[in-house]
């Protein structure tokens, strides 16, 4: 981070609707608040397995609440999330390992595409109710087909696998799910978990 600016890391997985909410708000504030935002693509299933966490919908009452909560937050933050009870089965039936490796590989080669690409995956999964298809998402944000093929080839490389694994392990050090937002302030990491703690984050870094 630049002198006097707070490094804020966002650990996220595109399967998580709350990650999308946190992502959009942090993207809006990254040029207003005195912070350097760093995207940390991570693998949610790995985090949950390592910490003994369970998806919210595994508890029926929590699932009911999540349906209302995500709709309310989407409306409040003006993020076009659609969510229905059917999405819980869709989430459980979707493995994002390949997707998060793809985003990681893009970050290693074309980092300027990470923000629009991540948004495109969320839009496809949570607005258009479609599967996570890397080639279509990449085309939509302007990655050339040659570059897309190169990045897809990288997703099975040890470098990309290790980078995603390292990011996931770092997320596990701090928290138990995503979005995990870590502000590095006065030499120490401070965790703000979830998309509903962003006012606290702003206050904490002096905004």
Automatic annotation (TrEMBL):
Molecular-function annotations in GO: glutathione peroxidase activity; glutathione transferase activity
Keyword Protein biosynthesis included in the entry's annotation: no
Catalytic activity: RX + glutathione = an S-substituted glutathione + a halide anion + H(+)
GO annotation terms (biological process): glutathione metabolic process
Active site: 16 (nucleophile)
InterPro entries: DSBA-like_thioredoxin_dom, GST_Kappa/NadH, GSTK, HCCAis_GSTk, Thioredoxin-like_sf
Highest taxon listed in the record's lineage: Eukaryota
Keywords, alphabetical: Transferase
Record domain DSBA-like thioredoxin: where: 8-204
UniProt EC number: 2.5.1.18
Keyword Acetylation belongs to the record: no
Cellular component annotations (GO), alphabetically ordered: mitochondrion; peroxisome
Family: Belongs to the GST superfamily. Kappa family.
Protein name: Glutathione S-transferase kappa 1
Native source organism of the sequence: Turnix velox
């Amino acid at each position: 981070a630049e002198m006097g600016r707070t490094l804020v890391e966002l650990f996220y997985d595109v399967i998580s609707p709350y990650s999308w909410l946190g992502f959009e708000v942090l993207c809006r504030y990254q040029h207003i608040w005195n912070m350097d935002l760093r995207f940390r693509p991570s693998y949610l299933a790995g985090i949950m397995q390592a910490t003994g966490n369970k998806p919210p919908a595994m508890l029926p009452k929590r699932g009911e609440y999540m349906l209302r909560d995500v709709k309310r937050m989407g409306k409040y933050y003006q993020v076009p999330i659609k969510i229905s009870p059917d999405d819980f089965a869709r989430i459980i039936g979707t493995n994002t390992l390949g997707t998060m490796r793809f985003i990681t590989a893009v970050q290693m080669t074309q980092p300027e595409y990470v923000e629009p690409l991540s948004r495109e995956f969320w839009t496809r999964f949570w607005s258009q109710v479609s599967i996570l298809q890397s080639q279509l998402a990449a085309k939509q944000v302007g990655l050339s087909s040659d570059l897309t093929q190169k990045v897809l080839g990288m997703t099975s490389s040890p470098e990309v696998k290790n980078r995603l694994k390292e990011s996931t392990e770092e997320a596990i050090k701090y928290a138990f799910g995503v979005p995990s937002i870590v502000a590095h302030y006065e030499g120490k990491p401070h965790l703000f978990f979830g998309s509903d703690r962003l006012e606290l984050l702003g206050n904490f870094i002096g905004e």
